Amino acid sequence: MHLQESGQMYLETIYILTRERQDVRSIDVCEYMGYSKPSVSRAVGLLRNGGFINVDDEGFLSLTDAGLEVAEKCTSVTTFFRDFL
Fold first, then answer.
1. What are phi and psi of 54, to 5 degrees?
2. How do residues 5-21 score in pLDDT, each as one tens digit?
3. From the DSSP assignment, how many helices (H) and strands (E) are in the chain?
4. Rounded to 5 degrees, what are φ and ψ at 60?
5. According to the model, what pLDDT value does residue 22 have?
6. Which DSSP category does 52 fall into?
7. Can you give the pLDDT at residue 79?
8. What's the number of domains the chain is made of?
9. 30, 40 contact by CB (below 8 A)
């Protein structure tokens, strides 16, 4: 599955949040990104179906190996440009 930039941003957000706290839910992503619940819900569904995240029975989000790889790359690029500027 090819990820668009928005999907990469969601993965990066989940990655950042999981480094800050143990449990991450969709509502945490909403608050962090400032997006609506329906938008995040749709993105979570697409990312789950694409094999980038897992959602457990309680609604907690976790990155799969593929999702983690994308998130780490995005975070590295973002950090590089932020430090460069």
1. -115, 150
2. 889 999 999 999 999 99
3. 4, 2
4. -80, 140
5. 87
6. S
7. 52
8. 1
9. yes
51: left (phi over 0), alpha (psi -120 to 50) or beta: left
Note down the domain range covering 66: 5-84
Which residue in 64, 85, 74 sits closest to 13, CA to CA?
A: 74
Which tens digits make up the pLDDT trace of 26-40? 999 999 999 999 999
The pLDDT of residue 80 = 40
Residue 67: C-alpha distances to residues 2, 11, 84 (Å): 12, 7, 26
- Residue 51 and residue 84: Cα distance in Å, rounded? 33
CATH number at residue 56: 1.10.10.10
18 CB-side CA count, 13 A:
18
